[in-house]
Design the sequence.
């Protein structure tokens, strides 16, 4: 068991280093793009803006990944690593090797995603109904 935790800790630390390296690369390339004066035609400027926005989105994902890795490392220290936060069963080692910062077993994660999809669909349907009612009132 201790050997498994040491292996997972090493994997998480390597992932953290790789993620920090990617964030630093993105920050450097983003600052070099924004440092220059706007150049080119409107299409070049639009392309640059799109690239910058994509870089910011990726940075958010990388920061989220870093947060998840740090949480997993804390769980290792607390002796709570590899336990599903929903059902409190042990998360299979195969899943942890693929997703070392997994918080849920596969079954619980699937149930959570299904619930989120149903909630999103319900909210979208409600928004469409409100739009339709608003249009009827205007007519």
Sequence:
């Amino acid at each position: 068991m201790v050997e498994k935790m040491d292996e997972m800790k090493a994997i998480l630390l390597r992932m953290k280093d790789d993620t920090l390296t990617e964030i630093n690369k993105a920050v450097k390339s983003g600052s070099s793009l924004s440092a220059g004066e706007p150049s080119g035609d409107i299409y070049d400027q639009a392309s640059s803006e799109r690239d910058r926005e994509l870089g910011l989105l990726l940075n958010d994902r990388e920061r989220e990944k870093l947060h998840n890795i740090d949480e997993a490392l804390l769980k290792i220290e607390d002796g709570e690593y590899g336990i599903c936060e929903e059902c409190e069963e042990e998360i299979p080692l195969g899943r942890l090797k693929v997703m070392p910062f997994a918080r849920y077993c596969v079954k619980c994660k699937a149930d959570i995603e299904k619930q989120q999809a149903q909630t999103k669909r319900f909210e979208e349907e409600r928004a469409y109904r409100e739009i339709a009612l608003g249009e009827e009132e205007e007519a």
Remarks:
- The chain has two domains: 2-104, 105-139.
- The chain has a mean pLDDT of 84.
